[in-house]
Write a structure and sequence with these properties.
Largest sheet: 3 strands, antiparallel
Number of strands: 3
Number of helices: 13
Strand order of the largest sheet: 1-3-2
Radius of gyration: 25 Å
Family: Belongs to the proteasome subunit S14 family.
Keywords: Proteasome
GO biological process, one term: proteasome-mediated ubiquitin-dependent protein catabolic process
Structural class: mainly alpha
InterPro entries: 26S_Psome_Rpn12, CSN8_PSD8_EIF3K, PCI_dom
Protein name: 26S proteasome non-ATPase regulatory subunit 8
Amino acid sequence: MKPKEGAISIYYYNMATTLKEAVSMYQKLNREWSKKPPNLNKCGDILGQLKIALLNLSFLPIAGSKPSKQELIIARDILEIGVQWSVLKGEIQSFERYMAQLKPYYFDYREELPESSYKFQLLGLNLLRLLAQNRLAEFHTELELLPAKEIQNNIYIKHPVSMEQYLMEGSYNKVFLARGNVPAESYNFFIDILLLTIRDEIAACVDKAYERIAFNEAARMLFFTKPQEMKAYGEKRGWELGKDNYFVFHTDKKAEESIPSHELALQAIEYARELEMIV
């Protein structure tokens, strides 16, 4: 049975009203986001409202929906802000959700839409996130979606690719040096998570392989440049710092009598990342 003409008119009127409201909210979000610094709480509230509006208007790419080019660009812009907002808020799950919704605009609609200036910055950021979470299979799957020329030449993609190579080589010092050489400030969020993971892995090897270690040597191995940071980290791990400025580890050494501890430590530190990847 055909819907009545009046019902159709009301439907399109409601759609037009909702679209107008969504565009108004989008403009408001842009104004808030452009402020230096942006009010993250206000931006979060607007993003929450826009998520509902996008679903109601079928802006998000789902089966059977045919949004216009302008609608798709607006939706993509909103999701890109959502990804960056999630990083500033330190909300990884939110980042993952926004990124999952954003990727179809970069890949499924790449022929219909002009390329976003944020495309490779955010795709590279997502690669770094997977690396920081040790999700290496997904890292390589995402990498395979990108053109070879971008992998080789795009600074946003080359950065996480280089990080993965350093980890495979056990060149942890290069990873730590990368903290001050990121292609975008947002990359530091996931770099910090990655550095913490590496530091914890090295520390786990050290306190199993040594009975005691000099404070300065521990700081060098863990890439600490400030003594107070090394001290705080040692306290967090329960390392006892003696008056002779040595950390003392109270671990079970029964099965280690015939194992050269120093050699074991060096090997463990060098291959810690590779072993974890295999597991």
